[in-house]
Amino acid sequence: MDWIEIIVHTTTLGAEPVTDQLMAEGATGTMVEDRADIPDPDKPNGYWEIIDPKLIESMPEDVLVHAWLEPDAGFPERMASLRQRLGALKERQSGLGSLEIETKNVRDEDWSEVWKQFYKPFRAGRKLVVKPTWEQYDAQPEDEVIEIDPGMAFGSGTHETTGMCLELLEDALHGGERVIDVGTGSGILAIGAAKLGAREVLAIDIDPMAVKVAKENIAHNGLSETITAVEGNLLDRQEMICEVCVANIIADVICAFAEPLTHHIVPGGLFICSGIIKEREQDVLDALHAAGYEVLEVRRKGEWVAMLSRRP
C-alpha cells in the first residue's frame, strides 16, 4: 500500500507541537526540515567546517514537518481532525506560521478515492450500522442504517471519537428528543440521532464544505425534514434548545463552549462530548464541573475520551 506523506508548513517554534498533533492522528513517523538546524558555516566547528553554504540556501524558508499516514478507511477523518487540531493550535499560540498542509506520494485526486476500498459497512452500537453509500449491506430487522459518503469532512464513523458518540447517543435517546450536533462534519451524528428517534435535529458547523457534505448525506438518508444543517457558530446565531447536545470537536472548544451551551440544553438535558485526547481529559472535566454539569460517564478508546454529562 502507498503511504501518503503529509507536510505541514510551520516555524521552528511550531515544529514540536505540530509533530505532536501528527503523531496523535496516527502518523507512523515524522521528520522536521528546518534550516535553523544547520549551523552557520561562517562559524565553523568540527565537521561543520566542510558544509556548503548553498545547502542552507536550498532549504525551504518554512519549517516543514513531514509525516506518513496510511490511506485506510479512517484517513479522511484523520485529515479532517488534523485540520481541526492545527486550527485550534494556531488560535492558542502565535508564531507558528501558516500551518498549511500538503500531501505527496499519491495525487490529491487519487487519495480522495483510494481509501474507499477499505471503508466497509460496520456496526456502531446495538442497532446503528454505518454503511458507505457505495457499498451493499443486508440490513437485519433491528438495524438502523446510516448511509454516509464523508468526502473530506470528518465523520466516517471509523474514528474512535465518532464511534463513542454514536454509542452514547444510542444509550441517551429514547424517541422524541430535540438534538443539536455541534461541529457536524459529515452529519453522521445528526443522522444517527434521527435514526434513533430524535424528532428535530440541528446540525451546525463553521466549515461550509462540511455543511455541504452533511446536507447531501442528510438528503440521501431521507431526513431533510427532520435535520436542518446550517453553517455558523451555534452560540452566535441559533436559539434552538434541546434535550441532547452532542459535540465531537476538540478539547479547547468544548471547554470554551461548556458554560454557554447550558443556554441551549434544557434543565436535566444531556451533553455528549468527544474529540478529547487523553491528555486533556482533566481539563474538560474541570470545565464541565465549573459549568455545573454532572458527569455521568467517561468512555475511553485508544488515545481518545468521550463524556456524557447532565445539565443541572
Provide a brief overview of the structure:
This protein is of the alpha/beta class and 312 residues long. It contains ten helices and 14 strands.
Can you give a write-up of this model?
The chain is an alpha/beta fold and 312 residues long. The protein has 2 domains: 4-114, Alpha-Beta Plaits; 119-310, Vaccinia Virus protein VP39 (Rossmann fold, 3-Layer(aba) Sandwich). The protein has helices spanning 15-24, 53-58, 75-92, 108-114, 160-172, 188-195, 208-220, 234-237, 251-261, 281-290; strands at 4-10, 30-33, 63-69, 101-104, 122-123, 128-132, 144-148, 178-182, 200-205, 227-231, 242-248, 265-277, 294-301, 304-310. The chain has a 7-stranded mixed β-sheet with strand order 10-9-8-11-12-14-13, sandwiched between helices. A 4-stranded antiparallel β-sheet has the order 2-3-1-4, covered by helices on one side. The protein is globular and about 60 Å long. The N and C termini lie far apart (51 Å). The relative contact order is 0.11.
Descriptive tags:
Alpha-Beta Plaits, 32% helix, 27% strand, 10 helices, alpha/beta, 14 strands, four-stranded antiparallel beta sheet, 312 residues, Rossmann fold
How is the secondary structure organized here?
Elements: E1 4-10, H1 15-24, E2 30-33, H2 53-58, E3 63-69, H3 75-92, E4 101-104, H4 108-114, E5 122-123, E6 128-132, E7 144-148, H5 160-172, E8 178-182, H6 188-195, E9 200-205, H7 208-220, E10 227-231, H8 234-237, E11 242-248, H9 251-261, E12 265-277, H10 281-290, E13 294-301, E14 304-310
